[in-house]
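re the bet — no i am not wrong, look at it urself. input seq straight from the record:
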Amino acid sequence: ANPTIIRLTMVTTSLAILAFIAWAGVTNINEVARTPGEVVPQGFQQVVQHLEGGIVREIKIREGQQVEKGQVLVVLDGAGSQDRHGASR
């Protein structure tokens, strides 16, 4: 094998690799991947409602927030329910 040909091959390969690295560093490639699918909740959805009705005074959580068991989610205005509770005594 001729040393000149080996050296020329190594230099050409090195320059090609350096050119590719430089190109990769300055080029933006927009990549789009489309696939069918569906979004499902992590757990079961559960309807939360007050059995007697009432007015919500304060919401203690925000949409998408994870909650713990027993955590207060809303505060109801107790005036109406206290009146009904007192009337039923």
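see?? The helical segments are 3-26, 79-87. told u. also The two ends are 107 Å apart (CA to CA). so pay up
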